[in-house]
C-alpha cells in the first residue's frame, strides 16, 4: 500500500519493514496482537531516543489503520502504543568559514584533474549549492543535467519531481566532471554498473572534511543540505521558496530553519551587543 498508493521511496519502505519486523520479534504476530501485547513495547523501547520510539509507533499505527481499512481486524490496539513527546533537535550546520575551508580544499584537490577529485567537487557543489538529499544526488540520471537552463530535474521523496537551480560554480564543476566521467551507464555518478552509494558518498564527504581540517563528525551530506537551507534563510530567502527548493511536502518541516536562524541571532546579540555583558540589578 505504501508503495502503490503513496509512492513511498525504497528507503522509506525499508524503514517501515524494519520497524514492523522489530516489533513483531517482541510481541509476536502483529496482525493478532492485542493491547496488552503492544503495551510491552514501551518497556522494550525504553532505552531508545524519543524520536525513534515515535517513528516506530507511527509505523505500527499506520499498519493497524491499514488492517482496519482492509477489514483484516475489527479493533485497533494501537492506543496502547507509547506516545513520546520528542523535542526535534535543531539541524547541525557548518559556519560560513567551515564551508569556505571545505570548498577551498576540494578545489585544490580538483586542480590535479583526477576523476575522483572532480567527482567529489561536483558532489559537494550539488549538496551545498542545490540542497539535494544524499539519495537524490547519487541517483541522479545523466539525462537530468540541463543543457541550457540553469535548473536540475530531481526526483525526491514519494517520486515527486521538482526543479532546483544550479549555481554557476556547480555547473562548472559538473562540466569538468562530465569531461572525465566514464562512458556508459545512465547515472550521473556511475559506480560498478549502477550509481555511487549513499554510504560511499558519506565516506567521501567525511574524508574531505578531515583533509580540510574540519572534524569529520560535524560533516555529512545532510549537514551540507542543512547549511544550504540555513545560509539561504540568513540571506533573506522566502520560507515558501525554501520549501520548494528542499522538496518538503509540509512547510512545518522547513520552519525548523527559522529556529536555527533565531538561535544564531540570539547568540550574535549576546556576543556582540554593547550591553550584553552589562549586569544590571532590578
Short description:
The chain has 282 residues and is mainly alpha-helical. It folds into 2 domains: 10-80, no CATH class; 96-267, Intergrase catalytic core (hpI Integrase, Chain A), CATH 1.10.443. Helices cover 55% and strands 5% of the residues.
Q: How does this structure look, described?
A:
By secondary structure, this protein is mostly helical. It has 2 domains: 10-80, no CATH class; 96-267, Orthogonal Bundle (hpI Integrase, Chain A), CATH 1.10.443.10. The protein contains 12 helices and 4 strands; from the N terminus they run ααααααββαββααααα. It has helices at 10-27, 35-44, 50-69, 96-110, 115-130, 134-138, 168-180, 198-211, 221-234, 239-246, 251-254, 256-272, and strands at 151-155, 161-165, 190-191, 194-195. The strands form 2 sheets. A two-stranded antiparallel sheet has the order 1-2. Strands 3-4 form a two-stranded antiparallel sheet. α4 runs antiparallel to α5, α5 crosses α9 and α9 packs across α12 (256-272).
| CATH architecture assignment name of the largest domain | Orthogonal Bundle
Task: Please report which band the strand proportion falls in: under 5%, 5-15%, 15-25%, 25-35%, 35-45% or over 45%.
Answer: under 5%
Please estimate the helix content.
40-55%
Strand order of the largest sheet: 1-2
N-to-C span: 62 Å
What's the number of helices? 12
Coarse structural class: mainly alpha
Amino acid at each position: 500500500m505504501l508503495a502503490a498508493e503513496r509512492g513511498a521511496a525504497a528507503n522509506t519502505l525499508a524503514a517501515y519493514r524494519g520497524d514492523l519486523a522489530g516489533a513483531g520479534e517482541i510481541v509476536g504476530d502483529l496482525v493478532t496482537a492485542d493491547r496488552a501485547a503492544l503495551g510491552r513495547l514501551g518497556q522494550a523501547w525504553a532505552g531508545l531516543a524519543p524520536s525513534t520510539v515515535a517513528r516506530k509507533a507511527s509505523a505500527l499505527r499506520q499498519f493497524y489503520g491499514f488492517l482496519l481499512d482492509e477489514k483484516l481486524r475489527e479493533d485497533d490496539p494501537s492506543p496502547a502504543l507509547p506516545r513520546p513527546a520528542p523535542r526535534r533537535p535543531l539541524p547541525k550546520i557548518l559556519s560560513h568559514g567551515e564551508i569556505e575551508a571545505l570548498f577551498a580544499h576540494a578545489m585544490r584537490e580538483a586542480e590535479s584533474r583526477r576523476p575522483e577529485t572532480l567527482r567529489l567537487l561536483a558532489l559537494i557543489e550539488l549538496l551545498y549549492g542545490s540542497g539535494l538529499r544524499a539519495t537524490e544526488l547519487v541517483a541522479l540520471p545523466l539525462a537530468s543535467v540541463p543543457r541550457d537552463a540553469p535548473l536540475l530535474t530531481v526526483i525526491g521523496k514519494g517520486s515527486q519531481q521538482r526543479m532546483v537551480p544550479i549555481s554557476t560554480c556547480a555547473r562548472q564543476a559538473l562540466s569538468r566532471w562530465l569531461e572525465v566521467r566514464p562512458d556508459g551507464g545512465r547515472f550521473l555518478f556511475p559506480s560498478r554498473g549502477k550509481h555511487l552509494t549513499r554510504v560511499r558518498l558519506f565516506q567521501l564527504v567525511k574524508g574531505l572534511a578531515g583533509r580540510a581540517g574540519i572534524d569529520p563528525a560535524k560533516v555529512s551530506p545532510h549537514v551540507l543540505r542543512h547549511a544550504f537551507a540555513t545560509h539561504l534563510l540568513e540571506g533573506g530567502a522566502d520560507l515558501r521558496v525554501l520549501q520548494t527548493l528542499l522538496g518538503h511536502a509540509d512547510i512545518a518541516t522547513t520552519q525548523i530553519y527559522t529556529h536555527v536562524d533565531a538561535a544564531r541571532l540570539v547568540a550574535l546579540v549576546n556576543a556582540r551587543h554593547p550591553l550584553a555583558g552589562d549586569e544590571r540589578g532590578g
